[in-house]
Specification:
Layout lengths: L22 E3 L7 E6 L13 H10 L4 E4 L20 E12 L2 E8 L13 H14 L3 E4 L10 H4 L7 E6 L15 H10 L5 E5 L20 E6 L4 H9 L3 E4 L4 E6 L3 E6 L7 E6 L5 E5 L4 E4 L6 E8 L4 E11 L6
Parallel strand pairs: 2-3, 3-4, 7-8
Antiparallel strand pairs: 1-17, 2-9, 4-5, 5-6, 9-10, 10-17, 11-12, 12-15, 13-14, 13-16, 16-17
Length: 338
């Protein structure tokens, strides 16, 4: 089932104190409709248990609009699966560029790439991540950095030094990636807020990282359907989808569907598409990862009443599923200036 339309219009924040520069939200110039998709999954071309045809069919049959087949250091050409790509289902070419540094895994997905990208290594951890991000950019692909806590590989201090990356996995459905952190190591949402608070423009993706399509679907197996994005784009076409992702024109989810998000000059409204008798809690989060407000209302409403570099929302249902609304950034100065 496809997610219903999500409408987001950004406007002015609450007026600053006398003598201060005005603060305004940056307005995204998005258009089109919403498409549900997954950007990270595996097949028998690397370490999955099912052929590309079977994997693509699973997503198509479960109501997804697009899919990236992202095998480790292998390129699967969607042109080789002509019976699966239709007007309503798009296969975007991709790869999980798989490298490492001193035993730490470095995995960078390349979206909408023309062919296989050879993994790169450098003399530092940051340099290795950067080299693989650059490799994706060099072929006009879009990179996203995968599961930083897998193998406890790297955190915000390292990611803050990487350039020209705009997408980070904040939820990965594989059971061994440690989304929530532990033992003093932050979870991926905390890493995201750390980066945002440092001024890095980065958006949070939820993915499956699915490997297991055969046999039992269980918590300790890497099954599909656990993490996805809903992207607003002018058309179902690879460039349009990946450009919208890089612009933050999407929300990420593990199961919660949003009906509408509206931002006016003084408030943010998150409209949730309810399911059965489920209940929902929405948290509005600002600089430093501080929870600015918690509400059980639908729509969830937040009045803009103070300075913060960004505001994002997290919606949690009574089963524990989550939807993440991408951050809205604040600009200080004349709203009419460029």
């Amino acid at each position: 089932m496809r997610p219903p339309p999500l409408i987001l219009a950004l406007a002015l924040a609450a007026q600053p104190a006398l003598g201060q520069s005005p603060r305004t939200f940056e307005v995204p110039g998005w258009e089109g409709r919403w498409y549900r998709g997954n950007t990270h999954t595996h097949t028998t071309e690397s370490d999955g248990d099912s052929a590309p045809e079977h994997v693509a069919r699973w997503y198509r049959d479960h109501g997804y609009d697009f899919l990236v087949l992202s095998d480790h250091n292998v390129f699967t050409d969607p042109a080789g699966l002509p019976d699966l790509a239709t007007e309503d289902f798009l296969l975007i070419p991709g790869e999980e560029v798989t490298s490492g540094f001193e035993g730490r895994p470095v995995h960078v997905n390349g979206l909408n790439i023309p062919g296989v990208i050879e993994p790169r290594r450098a003399g530092t951890l940051v340099g290795t991540i950067q080299a693989n991000v650059d490799a994706v950019r060099e072929v006009e692909g879009v990179p996203h950095i995968n599961h930083p806590n897998f193998g406890w590989a790297f955190g915000a201090e390292v990611l803050a030094k990487v350039r020209d990356d705009r997408l980070l996995e904040i939820f990965n459905g594989h059971p061994g990636v440690h989304n929530r952190g532990g033992g003093g190591i932050p979870g991926l949402e905390a890493v995201w807020d750390d980066l945002l608070s440092r001024g890095k423009r980065i958006y949070g993706i939820a993915v499956d990282d699915a490997h297991h399509f055969q046999g039992e679907f269980a918590a300790d197996r890497a099954n599909p359907g656990r993490g996805w994005v809903a992207v607003r784009a002018p058309r179902l076409e690879p460039r349009a989808i990946v450009d919208a992702l890089e612009a933050g024109h999407f929300y990420a989810s593990t199961g919660v569907t949003l009906a509408d998000v509206v931002v006016t000059p003084t408030r943010i409204e998150v409209h949730i598409d309810p399911r059965g008798d489920f209940r929902y809690t929405t948290e509005f989060i600002g600089g430093g990862g501080r929870v600015l407000k918690t509400t059980g209302g639908n729509p969830a409403i937040f009045e803009l009443d103070g300075p913060t570099p960004y505001v994002r929302a997290r919606v949690i249902d009574s089963r524990g599923d989550v939807a993440w609304v991408q951050p809205v950034f604040v600009r200080v100065g004349d709203p009419g200036s460029s």
